[in-house]
Amino acid sequence: VVFPENTTSSHQRCNFPPPFPSSSLGPPSSPPAPYEILKNKALASRTLPSTGPVPVQEELSLGDIDEALKGLEVACPHNNREEAKLLAGTINFGVAKQILQAKCLDENEPCFEDIEAFAESADFKNCTNAGVADSFATALDDAGCLHNNRKEILRLTGMDNVADAKKELVAVCLVTRKACLSFDDLVFQTPVCTPAAILEDIEAQMLAKSCVHDTRTEAKLLTKMESFPDAKKALRAKCQADLTPCTNLANVDINLCDRNTVVRAIKQDMSEDCAHSVQRELMILTGASSKKDAESYIAAMCDGVWSEVETTTFEDIDPDFVGGDFVSEYYEGGTFLNSETSNFRRGLDDNENYPISDQTQRVGENIVAFRNDEAATTMMGTGAESINRCENQAIMCCFGRDRQSGDDNGNCDSDDCDDADPGDNTDLCSVAGDEDDIHCHGVAWAADNNDATSRMRLNNLFFVSLFDHMYTRGYVGDINAPANSAAPMCGCIEDMPVVSRADCTQIDAELTVTLNIDADGLLTAATQEEPDLQVNFNACRAETNNDLASYVEKLANQKKISTEMKDVFSSIVVGTCPA
After folding, report:
1. Calpha distance 72→35 (Å, rounded)
2. Pairing mode, if any, of strands 311-313 and 523-527?
3. Are 169 and 153 in contact (CB under 8 A)?
4. With contact defined as beta carbons under 8 Å apart, do 414 and 406 qualify?
5. Percentage of residues in the chain having pLDDT higher than 70
6. 523-527 and 512-517: which strand pairing?
7. pLDDT-wise least confident of 52-66, 169-183, 195-209, 506-520
8. Separation of alpha carbons 454 and 476, rounded Å
9. What is the pTM of this model?
10. How far is it, in rounded angstroms, from Cα 122 to Cα 365?
11. Cβ proximity of 301 and 515 under 8 Å
């Protein structure tokens, strides 16, 4: 029903449709004149209280409407029946009374069934008094509510005054609206727990989350506190708890030094009732303001530990390896080590057809000595340039010839070793049909430079290429396939030919490292005065032992290498050659 604001009839109406008071809510703060008429005259038959509005039942009858209309005694040229019809826009008085009754009922009908229903429809921007008042007004407009905000807010909250009603809505806002951050996962970057520093810290994290409300609201939402001072107290308590370390590391020995090992030691030493996470503990012990900075601190700390370990190079193996490009040429498939045909040690299978030279015997003896000493107790570095710049964490060797007889490996015989083959363990995917036997063997390591597999990767390469395959088995030379003429004998995985599989060796190392907390509360790590590094070489342990692909899969599952590295590796070591 539309009530016209004006009419062209000679009988102009004298009042807007009258508002009807509610017994529980009382009059609006600035009631219009018709309300005053109703209050003072419309229900003259009832006793008016000395204070407060006229008590009127929630649902008025048609008789109540008649009584109300009789009270509209203003300077109006027509009677109340005519006024009722003009107000309602009808010529029928009965219909007019029904229309006015419907309006009265609409104005007393609640806009929301309960406060939970309101909370579901409200769009709280922030949980302040002004914020919830704006959200409440918007919700009433969206619901098409006919009566004023004051009346509905009091009815909905069951409060006697608007101030208390707004407090109730603030509480509803705090429960309903979600914080942009997580209280349990909140990490304070500030080194001090002053309210200003805490709020500045929270504001910075809110910006990263594109949070739409203000810092005060976020503080209350995070802590589920109704007042801002209480929220600040709760945040300060959490900040102080977060800045108190839960570990008491004192001369704690660990094996090796890398991020995973250090984190594991700290986690084991943390008290069970610690209020913060391991990541937060790392930040406290390293004085870092972020997880990334904490990891950088540990990386630098462990790098200092490894710098105390004795290092050797390939040049320390034998005088022939010193200077020039001897090692690089060897891994490319050159030098006398790959071109000669003879054993590396006398007494193994001496024969006149393939005599062993003094040079070869000396190299063999030096390789054995290096294997039993430096390779097992020092950290090797400075290998061939071609294998120092691997883009991915794997090196593979593919041998195409057996130069040594009498070792029960390959088919070199004392009477026939000119073109002998190594023990076949893979397929070369670039060769169609029959191919010569080839043997591939590789090493892989973690991306973390402080992981022992990375630090000792050249130790591992020395063992695989020079000791285990050349000296022990006599396997040398590249695979000599025309399609792979540019492929080295040993090289970074991305430079090697596509094969079906490869054997695998891993290193297992031991190095005593001692963790402590210094006078400044920061984590320290140190080796013994004489580092006790011990390196062992074993077949790779994975789902399939002694299998390079399976070991790389294991490293990927442990998140020690990237998915991208694994994909590159899988494009070279393919499992089954494509048809």
Report:
1. 10
2. unpaired
3. yes
4. yes
5. 80
6. antiparallel
7. 52-66
8. 25
9. 0.64
10. 84
11. no
Q: How crowded is residue 400: how many other Cβ atoms within 10 Å of its Cβ?
A: 22
Q: Please give the radius of gyration of the chain, using alpha carbons only, rounded to the nearest integer.
A: 44
Burial class from Cβ neighbours inside 10 Å (0-12, 13-18, 19+) for residue 330 reads buried
CA–chain centroid gap for 489, Å, is 41
CA distance 577 to 579: 6
Cα distance between residue 39 and residue 56, in whole Å: 10
101 and 60 in contact (C-beta within 8 Å)? Answer: yes
Residue 35 has pLDDT above 50, yes or no: no
> Are 525 and 265 a contacting pair, CB within 8 Å?
no
Residue 53 and residue 42 in contact, taking contact as beta carbons nearer than 8 Å = no
Long-range contacts of residues 136-139, Cβ cutoff 8 Å, at least 24 apart: 136/169, 139/112
Sign of CA dihedral 430, 431, 433, 435: negative
Amino acid, single-letter form, for residue 362: R
Do you know the residue count of the chain? 579
Please give the Cα distance from 367 to 336 (Å, whole number).
15
Contacts of 529 (CB under 8 A, 6+ apart): none
Question: Residue holding tokens 């801002």?
Answer: 228
| 3-class SS of residue 497 | coil
- Print burial letters for 529-543: b (CB count within 10 Å at least 16), e (below 16): eebebebebeebebe
The amino acid occupying position 562 is: S
User: Confidence class of residue 214 from pLDDT cuts 50, 70 and 90?
Assistant: confident
- CA torsion sign for 405, 367, 355, 485 is positive
Burial 220-259 (b: 16+ CB within 10 A, else e): bbbbebbebeebbebbeebbeebbebbbebeebebebbbb
Q: Name the DSSP class of 320.
A: G
- Give the pLDDT band of residue 420 (cuts 50, 70, 90): very high
418-423 contacts: CB < 8 A, separation 24 or more?
A: 418/341, 422/473, 422/475, 423/473
Closest CA to 112 of 152, 171, 163, 150: 152
Q: Hey, is 50 helix, strand or coil?
A: coil
Q: What does the alpha-carbon distance between residue 448 and residue 254 come to, in Å, rounded to a whole number?
A: 18
pLDDT at 209: 81
* Contact assessment for residue 406 and residue 472, using Cβ atoms and an 8 Å cutoff: no
Return the half-sphere exposure (C-beta side, CA atoms, 13 A cut-off) of residue 65.
24
